[in-house]
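> example.struct
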């Protein structure tokens, strides 16, 4: 049973790391017409240089907000998983339930 808990903590931390990498990555969209062009949530890159967006559409702010919210939920899930090694409940709330809700919210 402890082995499953350790594996779940490792997988939760791995998913949190992948969320952070996805959030800061500039490779959300690659354009094949202009060789070497790719775009992320924070900046766009041409063949040699990257620039931050001067203005962004509203849905960019929504995607940024949801990604940051997913990161917070993933961190909460990983923290609750680590805390579940020491106690199973925090007051009246089951830490396993917190982990489950946090993991599903993180995506």
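> example.seq
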């Amino acid at each position: 049973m402890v082995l499953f808990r350790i594996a779940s903590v490792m997988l939760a931390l791995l998913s949190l790391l992948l969320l952070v990498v996805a959030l800061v990555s500039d490779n959300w969209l690659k354009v094949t017409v202009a060789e070497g062009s790719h775009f992320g949530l924070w900046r766009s890159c041409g063949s040699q240089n990257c620039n931050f967006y001067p203005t962004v559409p509203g849905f960019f702010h929504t995607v940024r907000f949801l990604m940051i919210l997913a990161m917070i939920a993933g961190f909460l899930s990983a923290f609750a998983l680590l805390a579940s090694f020491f106690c199973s409940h925090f007051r009246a709330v089951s830490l396993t339930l917190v982990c489950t809700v946090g993991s599903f919210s993180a995506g």
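> remarks
The first strand starts at residue 29 and ends at 31.
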